[in-house]
Each structure stands twice: as structure tokens, then as C-alpha cells.
Amino acid sequence: MLHRRDRCPRRRAGGRVAVPGGCGAPAADRCGPAPAVRAGPAVTTGRADGLVVGIGARPGCSEDAVRRLLDRVAVAHGLDLASADVATLDRRAGEPGLRAAVAPRVPRGFTATELAGVVVPHPSERVAAATGTPGVAEAAALLAAGPGAELVVPKTTGTGVTAAVARRP
User: Fold this and answer.
1) Which has fewest Cβ within 10 Å: 94, 105, 115, 168?
2) How much is the pLDDT for 49?
3) How far is residue 153's CA from residue 133's CA, in Å, rounded to a whole number?
4) Over 90: is that where the pLDDT of 106 sits?
5) How does pLDDT run across 131-158, given as a tens digit for each residue?
6) pTM of the full predicted structure?
7) What secondary structure, in 3-state letters, does the chain show?
8) N- to C-terminal Cα separation, the chain
């Protein structure tokens, strides 16, 4: 589960919901009333809409850091990432913190060469020097989503971890 009621970014001090309509988490974990559902392509529900989360992470990334970032991305963009596919750099796919945060899903790993072949909107020289590819999160999301995929959430940074979300065509 990606959402934790006690760590909801939409809560203010004192436990009140900071955004009218609640946080949009599953009913059992929701911090307030359910948000209004909009018809059309903006409404997403994970695998049914072909979402793929790309994750870039430093070695030894913590489960908590990954969960917090995914929660923040889901809430900020109104996405249900609980069943979205997950992709990353092949040498990070086995990171215990990453695997625990996205369980029971198993991250799909791509080589640095495969990721470097994807043009990303937010390349990083530092990431390129460390991994051999100028971007991991955006490239992994786009590559896993396949040809014609759309980046719906650009690279978002957390503590030692980045995430981006793509939608399959």
C-alpha cells in the first residue's frame, strides 16, 4: 500500500485535512472525504490506465523514502499508483528498500545503455557520471510503457530517490 494515513502530505498539524475533499487514498486509509471523480482521460486507476512508475535510487535507498515519494507523487497528481508497473535501473531493481516499498510488484530493470537511449526532459550530468545514463526515473517509465508513451509526471525528487510516471498509449 502506498498511502499511510499518519504520513499523508495533505494533513495539517492537528490532523485536519489540508485540501478540501480528502486525499484520494483507498477508503480504508483515507484522511477525509473522497475527492469528486471526474470523467475522461484525467482519471487514472493504475494498471487499467497503463501507468508505469520509473524510480531512480541511490544504493541503499530506504523503503520509507521510496514510499514517501510515491505517496507525494500520487496525491499531487491524483493518481492511483498501487497497481502501476515499476521500472528502474537493473542494478537498483534488487535494492531491498525499493523492493519492499513496491511489493508485491517486482521492479523491471533496464541497463544503463537501454535507458541512455531514451530522450528525457530532465537529464542530469551527475546521474550520467554515476550510472552511465543521464536519467533513470523518466527513462525507465517511458521505456517500460513502450513506444508512444506519454510522461504524465516528470522527474520528482525525494531523499535519495526520484520518480516519474508514464502512461502507455
Assistant:
1) 94
2) 76
3) 19
4) yes
5) 999 999 999 999 999 999 999 999 999 9
6) 0.72
7) CCCCHHHCCCECCCCCECCCCCCCCCHHHCCCCCCCCCCCCCCCCHHHHCEEEEEEECCCCCHHHHHHHHHHHHHHHCCCCCCCEEEEEHHHCCCHHHHHHHCCCCCEEECHHHHHCCCCCCCCHHHHHHHCCCCCHHHHHHHHHCCCCEEEEEEEECCCEEEEEEECC
8) 26
Q: Please state, rounded to an integer, the average pLDDT across all residues of the chain.
A: 81
Domain ranges, ordered by start, for the chain: 1-38, 45-167
CA 117 to chain centre: 21
Q: What is residue 72's predicted lDDT score, i.e. its pLDDT? A: 97
Q: Which CATH architecture has domain 45-167?
A: 2-Layer Sandwich (3.30)
Neighbouring CB atoms inside 10 A of 105's CB total 15
